[in-house]
Amino acid sequence: MSEPTWEEAREISEWRPRLGVLSVYLGFDPADRGGAWRTELRNGLDAILDANKEIDHEPRVALRATAKRVLERFEDGDLRPPPRGEIGFVAVSEKEGAEHWWGTGTPPAADACVEYAPEPVVAPLIALCCHGASRGVALLSAERVRLLRCAEGTLDELEDWEMSVFSLNWRERKSQSTSNPARGHGVSSSGHDQFDERLEHNRQRFLAECGGLAARALEQSGLDEVVVFGPAKDVEGFDSGLGSAKAKLALGGEQDLISVPKGKLGEVVAEAIERLDSERDRAIVERALGEAKGGSRGSAGVQETKEALLEGRVDHLVFDAAIDEDAELMIRAALSSSAQVTIVRDELAEPLAEAEGVAAILRY
């Protein structure tokens, strides 16, 4: 089971099963051994069946059968869907029908764990796509580079490159050096300088070559961002090798993590990714509101943004996760026109209050 992609989210947003669909969002607390999520799911399905007990016979029977199948999927008490959550969209039908499921590294942010509607409820799915995407992680030192994949809350080693330095002759000469320069033995200061210059040149060339190798590895793994940790000078050399690669570089920090075991990297990587995501979201909100205030390529407010969406003019939709009304409609309109979507919450969403919680960057 893998994280949902933007393309999959777009396809799901356009899915219209004949009798509707159950949208299931489950979050799992590692400390919860009592299975509270299972009770929440059962209660949610019971509430849906009770609210629809007066509908026509065919959809009522199909809905009851579908709810039963969803419960049976999780009836094994030892089965906990990996790793922190699970998202599912199940076509309502009396017999088994189409289903789409994903495991997630971040618990879904959804007020209700299950909903029944003519089309999938996709806002929580898009929120996960915004911040739960897999990405590369590069740990740099002057003579070693580690490349990892961060996905579903876990880290996996992809590559580990190490530079070989052949300096035996220099070391031998250095061991014969004397404190009396008049004797003419040892290595002169200019010799040391030349060696240091060659070593630094080789280190930078090594980092650039690793950047090129990383670009190919990231592309093969379907990753379009690499979060890099290491000294600024080493990051610069590595970035020069990335060139025009599809994967874009983001600086996670300048700390030296090259020898840290994989099992101890999770927290620092997660904190850096959360910070980078927050910085990116804040910048998008500020830009959208700035464009709207400048009267150029921006819109603010529900009505103005809805009109721009219907006209296909939106390049990037931004809105507060607390908005319920029209949220699904706006998301579907954005996805159908290949616009980007950013969903923010809490303090990141506060600046949007002046725009009814909705703003957009326009194409024209």
Explain the layout of strands and helices:
Blueprint: H1 6-13, E1 21-27, H2 36-51, H3 57-73, E2 85-91, E3 99-104, E4 114-117, H4 123-131, E5 135-141, E6 144-151, E7 154-162, H5 168-175, H6 189-220, E8 225-229, H7 232-242, E9 248-253, H8 266-294, E10 298-300, H9 302-310, E11 314-320, H10 327-336, E12 340-344, E13 358-362
Parallel strand pairs: 5-8, 8-9, 11-12
Antiparallel strand pairs: 1-2, 1-4, 2-3, 5-6, 6-7, 10-13, 11-13
Helix pairs in contact: 2-3, 6-7
Description:
The structure is a single chain. The protein is of the alpha+beta class. The protein has three domains: 6-131, eRF1 domain 1 (Translation, Eukaryotic Peptide Chain Release Factor Subunit 1, Chain A); 135-264, eRF1 domain 2 (Nucleotidyltransferase, domain 5); 280-362, 60s Ribosomal Protein L30, Chain: A. 41% of the residues lie in helices and 22% in strands. The chain has helices at residues 6-13, 36-51, 57-73, 123-131, 168-175, 189-220, 232-242, 266-294, 302-310, 327-336, and strands at residues 21-27, 85-91, 99-104, 114-117, 135-141, 144-151, 154-162, 225-229, 248-253, 298-300, 314-320, 340-344, 358-362. The strands form three sheets. Strands 7-6-5-8-9 form a five-stranded mixed beta sheet, sandwiched between helices. A four-stranded antiparallel beta sheet has the order 3-2-1-4, sandwiched between helices. A four-stranded mixed beta sheet has the order 10-13-11-12, with helices on both faces. Helix 2 (36-51) runs antiparallel to helix 3 (57-73) and helix 6 packs across helix 7. The chain is globular, with a radius of gyration of 27 Å.
